[in-house]
Specification:
By secondary structure, the protein is an all-alpha fold. The protein has one domain. The protein is 89% helix and 0% strand. It starts with a helix and ends with a helix. Pfam families: MotA_ExbB. Belongs to the exbB/tolQ family. This is MotA/TolQ/ExbB proton channel family protein.
Length: 211
């Protein structure tokens, strides 16, 4: 712990902005991770319940199930099933579900892009802290005695590099988390598209039988 505190103190003023950026990134990461995992769980449970009903062609019961649920998959299916009760054209039902999907995707991606931005900001703060530290170091060395210059310069550069190191230590995990959350979001969107196609196929199959 003492080493960490000493490392932070030696980095100078710009260690504090980097710490704030890292804290904001962690807060966003935790919130997004919890939200996306909850969405995955709710979607899986809803699909396991409504899929057998759609496979049987009982669209009235399917409508009741999705209207009573608040999951993303229920929102999308409710739009399609509402059209299914009024029209028989596959294109109209597909457009309705695509419209709902366009509303859902921004909610899934919400705040995730900020992680990449915060990662870049942390890196830049680290570089800025290092540059400012080096400027201060060379200014101090200019007025020091020849015997002290080498030792003073080495110590000042070591302190300045701490800021870059902390910036990179903050940026790298944020980039990795951003990649993981983006991948999870892509999986959810892919599953919604798959459900949309399966629901459309079920509707088309039983509409043809009705004729």
């Amino acid at each position: 712990m003492h080493t960490i505190v000493r490392f932070f103190q030696m980095g100078g003023f710009f260690m504090f902005p980097i710490l704030l950026v890292l804290s904001a990134g962690i807060a966003i990461s935790v919130e997004r991770w919890i939200h996306l995992n909850r969405v995955k769980k709710e979607n899986r449970e809803m699909w396991e319940e409504v899929h057998p009903v759609l496979a049987q062609g009982d669209f009235d019961k399917a409508r009741e199930l999705v209207y009573e649920d608040n999951s993303a998959i229920a929102q999308m299916l409710s739009m399609g099933l509402a059209r299914q009760g009024a029209v028989r054209r596959r294109e109209d039902i597909e457009i309705a579900m695509e419209e709902s999907l366009m509303e859902i995707i921004p909610q899934l991606e919400k705040r995730t892009p900020y992680l990449a931005l915060l990662s870049n900001i942390a890196t830049l703060f680290g570089l800025l802290g290092t540059i400012m530290g080096l400027i201060t170091a060379f200014t101090a060395v200019a007025s020091a005695s020849p015997a002290e210059k080498a030792a003073l310069l080495a110590a000042s550069i070591s302190e300045a590099m701490n800021c870059t190191a902390f910036g990179l230590m903050s940026a790298i995990p944020l980039l990795l988390i951003h990649a993981r959350l983006s991948s999870t979001t892509g999986e959810i969107v892919g599953s919604l598209e798959m459900v949309s196609v399966k629901a459309l196929n079920s509707i088309s199959t039983f509409s043809k039988r009705a004729y």
